[in-house]
Each structure stands twice: as C-alpha cells, then as structure tokens.
Amino acid sequence: ATQLAGTMSGGEQQMLAMGRALMANPKVLLLDEPTMGLSPIMCDKIFEVVQEVYKQGVTILLVEQNASRALQLANRGYVMESGLITMSGDAKVMLNDPKVRAAYLGE
User: Which residue ranges run through the membrane (predicted)?
Assistant: First the structure.
C-alpha cells in the first residue's frame, strides 16, 4: 500500500525517518527526542528499534527526555542543564545513583 508520509502517525513518521537514515549504512546515528509526543506503545517500539540498530554495530547518540529508558539502553549517560553538562558517567552507575534517581527519575 502507498501512503504519504504526512498522513502517517507520529510513531510511523519516526520509524520512517529512522529507516531512511539507516539506508545509508551509517556508523553513527543521531536521534533527537525520538519518542517525543508518542504513545507509550510507540515509545516501546522506538526503543526496541534503537536497541536492534545498536546490536548491528551502529553507534547511537540519543537525546531523550525519558532518562530511565535512555540510561537502560546506553553505555554512557550525560545530563545537561541550561546547555551545560552537569553529570556524566557509566549509564548503569548513573541509573542507580540516588542523586540521579531523585533529580531525573522522579524518586
């Protein structure tokens, strides 16, 4: 079936954009808020695709508001506030850091 990109849902448009980017066989993929405004189900699908792309050897630079989900996938994490990096380190360590959890994960 043929469908114009402008008539697709937000999640479908994100998947299309990622697919188009992957057609060039990139070594690095920059994803800027790929789940913004999407339903929880579409967010899950986006994160599944990101994980699969990473497993295929593509380096991914992910900018994401959902810190918990991003840190679960990442090797390293960086926290920016007002354009400055205020925290960085191993993603798993950051995910379990009480300060990070309180400030960015709502705990």
Answer: none
Give the tens place of pLDDT for each residue, 52-70: 999 999 999 999 988 889 9
Say what angle helices 10-22 and 40-55 make with each other, to 10 degrees: 10
Residues of the domain holding 50: 1-65
Q: Which two tokens stand for residue 46?
A: 């986006």
Q: Are 10 and 59 contained in the same domain?
A: yes
| Lookup: tokens for 106 | 């709502």
What single string gives the DSSP state of each residue in 4-15?
-GGGS-HHHHHH
pTM for this structure?
0.78
What is the C-alpha to C-alpha distance for residues 44 and 1, in angstroms, rounded to an integer?
Answer: 25
